[in-house]
Design brief:
Layout (H helix, E strand, L loop, with lengths): L4 H43 L2 H15 L1 H52 L1
Helix pairs in contact: 2-3
Length: about 120
Amino acid sequence: MSTIGIPGLILILILALVLFGPKKLPELGRAVGHTLKEFKNATKSLTSDDDDEEEEKRKQQTKEAPVAASVVTEKDAFDREKLEREIRERVERERIEKEIREKMEQERSQMEKEQQKA
């Protein structure tokens, strides 16, 4: 297949002008631009991490609705606190488990020494 080229592009633009008129063309241009932007954001979000996607949504929401952004920020802060609490609990649990394993290993080694002496 061959490409459209400059003459074909000019013909398409003239047909669009005739079909839709000069008043509708800016609206169509905005709609096409918005569609391309949404498509670009959708493909970008598929390839990026979840954190990047959440940041983008937060930025977009703060631009669109400042009141809703404060609610989202409070919810995000609550979620962040909950996540931090869970991480701290998990780290503490792992530390305690490590101490227990070390104590059990010490007791095993002491029992082995006692058995070797006997």
